[in-house]
Amino acid sequence: MKTHRHLLTLALLSATSLLQAGQAVLRVDVQNEGKAVNPAMWGLFFEDINFGADGGLYAELVKNGSFEFPDPRMGWTKLGDRDTQDEVRYLSRTDATPANQRCVQLRTENSQGIGLSNGGFRGIGVKAGEHYDLTLDARVLKGSSGLRVRLVGPQGVLASAEIEALPQGWESHQLSLQATATEAQATLELLPSGKGIVEIDRVSLFPRNTWKQRPKGLRADLVQMLADMKPGFLRFPGGCIVEGFNLALRYQWKKTILPREERELLLNRWNVEFKDRPAPDYYQSFGLGFYEYFVLCEDIGAKPLPIINCGMACQYNSGELAPLDQLGPYIQDALDLIEFANGPVSSEWGAKRAALGHPEPFGLTLLGVGNEQWGPQYVERYEAFAKVLKAKHPEIELIAAAGPSPSDKRFDQLWEAWRRLKPAYVDEHSYSSPAWFIQGHGRYDSYDRNGPKVFVGEYACHTKERKNNLEAALAEAVFMIGLERNADVVRLAAYAPLFAHVDAWQWKPDMIWMDNLRVMPTPSYHVQSLFSRNRGDLVLPVTLSTTGESRLFASATWDKANSELIIKVANPDGAALSATLQFNGSTTVEGPVHRLVLTADNPETENTLNEPARVSPKETISPAFTGSESFPAYSFTVLRLKLKK
Ligand code: AHR
């Protein structure tokens, strides 16, 4: 393969002599075995926002199936020809439990066609030929009746099944429905077939084809998108949702590992957060709870990174504080979480994990204390947590927050405290303009190498119209190149938020959009994925010279397992650039050049559910390295080269 080799030595080349208009020289110091990249560096931020869990990842198709929403009618429509309230009654259960306080009663003694229809989470998505498993509790109190269940679309009935005779006492029933057609906005109808009084509760419908075919599991297409990214970690359950509107409404992980029917519904704080994006039907069912999050991490090969409430409610809302002398139960929750994740099966919480089906530990090493808190009251609370956690679990790396902004007084005060208190990581959040992200390329160059490491725990480029377009993704790529170059300081990073339902979002931009049947990666998803899938193990120093006003941003890493050099190059501007690639020493490139390029003619280009691949990476392979590479206007490129040193 000698003819394919190009010997390029720095000593022989003068950078300036090579520079022409629209040209660059990109030199990689391949002799310098640089900073190690954390194998978990590029991860995911998950929060139940934008119908991310209920109505999204958690594949339950019936909304308010147990009539527990404060308005028990929400999600349900009465069927029948008579306009009277009397035939459908929402009742308190005499045997109420905290998680199941109500049921519905349908009275068909005097009326025909009485029933209920559930509209799902902005419709129920069903696919032709696929099976859907319905479960419900039902009984007949008077008379006799069966129960017909149907999936119905605008064109008519898509599937139906029947319980012939309902029992007189509460019983659970299971029915299978096979859809005859594909429909994104179906409804589920429940229709008593006889005359009498029928009571129904805990109605649930799941696709059989969930992720790994687990009953009552997660939406397979959405998890696949995450698995495809090969994420290093998964942060859960948020986000502000950890904090709650007040402390009573905070996220309490212990309640989420109870049997599903015992998990109490809770207001989702995004229900009420934005007046212009109200979501009155947004509640947390916790069908996706902490056990499911840990299993999801394992499934997709991501380290679990839970964030725990530190005795503070969201400071954008009530900001309610647990008094310092009453933090005990909050700290105990953190200790028990560690035991739940890692403890032996003989321990109290390890036994609970085993009982749920996972005797092996989950290997928790990272724990966030508080989400996006700020102020001295946060520092005091963090300190109380850290004192106990560090003493009892020195193996757990603690994460402290740096507030909601990447540069303000709150941020500076927190960093001052963190330099003293030394959490393993400081969690910085940045939602800013394209210009900020491009400028942010150099942000970590001057960070203290001896202080806490940085977890860029939430970031996303917000264009003026908050679009998920190529411009935003390229600005993020430039920023991420800066994170990679500083992999000794920045050890973890995640885009936020992760999911959004097109008919139910509260916040944008987001990384992955969905409707009830389809999923759409954004250009930002591809940038994240390109980084994560082409991480490399060691950072190699890069120097770049460009002509005139041209801007190019680059980083390089060495992939030990494949003996490959990975070069990432972002060109956020409207002119293509050609770059001469140079390596020091007597390094040669052998074999083909693999190229993955994310680009479009217009930086405003976005993907859509109908055209989800408009902006997606294209792979090309050249048989031999020519010594230079061209970087299209508005592009992000990943090159993989085999080197012989
Ligand atoms: O990602 C959306 C929100 O942004 C998170 O919940 C919060 O931590 C931040 O303010």
Quick tags:
eight-stranded parallel barrel; binds alpha-L-arabinofuranose; disordered N terminus; alpha/beta; 645 residues
Short note summarizing the structure:
The protein is α/β, with parallel strands linked by helices and 645 residues long. It is built from ten helices and 34 strands.
Overview of the molecule:
The chain has 10 helices and 34 strands. It is 17% helix and 33% strand. The longest helix is centred in the middle third of the chain and has 17 residues. The N terminus is likely disordered. Strand 24 and strand 25 form a beta hairpin. With 645 residues, it is α/β, with parallel strands linked by helices. The chain has an 8-stranded parallel barrel, surrounded by 5 helices. Strands 3, 6, 7, 9, 10 and 12 form a 6-stranded antiparallel β-sheet that branches. Helix 4 packs across helix 5 and helix 9 packs parallel to helix 10. It starts with 14 loop residues before the first helix and ends with a strand. The structure holds alpha-L-arabinofuranose. The site of alpha-L-arabinofuranose has 13 residues, from loops.
